[in-house]
Write a structure and sequence with these properties.
alpha+beta, three-stranded antiparallel beta sheet, 4 helices, globular
């Protein structure tokens, strides 16, 4: 059976982040995301692979870390 596509709204709680984190910092370019109308669709297996490869967003990056 083929893997289902997930929306950013589904992926954000799966990763434990808010959806702005996925949309921001060019994260959508690093995922193999496809746009369907106004929605972006991702495969959870690809998201898992990116996290396992160590390419996930690090909390030490971004404006929050500079405070």
């Amino acid at each position: 059976m083929a893997e289902a596509w997930a929306s950013v709204e589904d992926v954000a709680p799966y990763l434990g982040v808010v959806k702005c984190t996925i949309y921001g910092r060019n994260e959508m370019r690093s995922f193999s995301a496809y746009r369907v109308g106004l929605l972006h669709k991702l495969k959870l297996s690809e998201v898992d692979g990116r996290v396992r490869a160590g390419n996930a967003v690090d909390k030490s990056e971004g404006p929050e870390a500079k405070r």
